[in-house]
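Render this sequence as a predicted structure.
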Amino acid sequence: SVGGKPPRLLNFVENGSYLICLDLSSTCFRGAIVNLRGVIVEKIEVMADGRTGEAALELVYQLIDDLRQRVTGPILGIGIGSPGLVNTDLGVIIDAVNLDWRDVPLQTRLAEKYDYPVYIANDSHLSALAEYSFGPDDTRNLVLIRVTQGIGAGIVLDGALYYGEGFGAGEIGHVVVAENGRQCSCGNVGCLETVASVKSILQASGYASWDACCQALTEGDTAVTQIIQQAGAYLGIAVANLIGVLNVRHIVIAGRIIQTGDLFLEAVIQTAQKRALPSIFAGTEIRFSSIDRDIVLLGASALVLSQELGVI
């Protein structure tokens, strides 16, 4: 299991060894060198440019090769956050639609190529691990919801990541919340991702970029304001269900959606409050994450540290 808090890392020589960490969850693949204190010492990124299948794998190799050349000490292991369903026991990408990876034995392929321990998990799961390990809450239980191009959640229960029996715990993005809504890429209609993700907000607003959409929100664009509030309300439905099922008191929201600020967060809180049992909701905190866009990279570092050194 993974548990503990960052102070345990103070027992280690800061730059005694290093971790290579990758975040493959965006259109831009990101990599980092992380020391034993969980501090990122160098970052690089490469545009995926729509690469899928073997071409995307070659980009992963390229990223690791580049990072290896920059490391100034021994490498403890490699940690990777991938989109989609990931068998964390075997390091197999069961299904990552955007990368066109199905049953890809990524852990085995990388371990054979680089001769380092390799650990792989879903990007939202690793985000939850990062929040648990490096965030401000003194708790053994939390749910982190990552809202970017898609939506996914990671769940920490009693200090351990809960992956689910089929490794799909937290796949709330494909739970239907909007009856008679738009068709989702998964085949269902009205999934949470179709009404509350960054991608869906952009489509509804008509803006070409997320920065432009957020700027319009700041300037008081009425249409964008309504779209953001509605998106927050839909996420609030999912949050109420998580509260009812898990009774977890720390719900954290991460990802690019944070740029929408209090308007989105308040809509989430208000809707969740209306839909959850009052006595349970009363003890629940819903907030934005204080960790920036490196959250998946930090989660990958925490995964390696927990497996190799028994900390975090």
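Summary. Confidence is low (pLDDT under 50) at residues 1-7. The domain at 6-127+293-309 is CATH 3.30.420.40 (Nucleotidyltransferase; domain 5).
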